[in-house]
């Protein structure tokens, strides 16, 4: 039986090396990944159990480690590997989006920001800092939590923008469990922050809310009309 599993694993690896993941189904992606944490078990069966429990590949990757290890065949090592993937993806996209990148439109800004939130299951606030030609000077995290949490203050945003010598900034946060529609608190925070930054000659270009692969520009949706 071990020999049968070994041959199956070899075929799946060779298929990936030849053609990538384009023609793989979700359970096959998980099966292949689990080869590297579970050397002697049938990872096909485990992959199906994971998908049945969490609903999708994204659901598996977003699940807490303490929930993953409840699935038969998933130990601490396999659970850690699964949780590592979204974080690695985030680092990968961060590395691709290098400093000095010119962002000329809302579409450019959204494409830059969405990868910053890949795999995040909690809210966080980011500040995209740009120079006077809208080239990226940095994109640090301001805080964990949303824009009305105790950890978020306009002062922290101003200090961060000055630290990165930003002329223009874009505030961004995620809605990991909901759609990207802005709340009243999001709009009020945008208005307050716009006025605060204006006093130190820094322009708030936009506030982008991200939910998965979707994003909404508060400026483009009319939220800056009161400014």
Automatic annotation (TrEMBL):
Residues 102-224 form the MPN domain. The keyword Hydrolase applies. The keyword DNA repair does not apply. Keywords: Hydrolase, Metal-binding, Metalloprotease, Protease, Zinc. One of its GO terms (molecular function) is metal ion binding. One of its GO terms (biological process) is proteolysis. InterPro entries: MPN, RadC_JAB, RuvA_2-like, UPF0758, UPF0758_N. Belongs to the UPF0758 family. PANTHER family: DNA REPAIR PROTEIN RADC (PTHR30471), UPF0758 PROTEIN YEES-RELATED (PTHR30471:SF3). This is RadC family protein. The lineage of its organism: Bacteria, Bacillati, Bacillota, Clostridia, Eubacteriales.
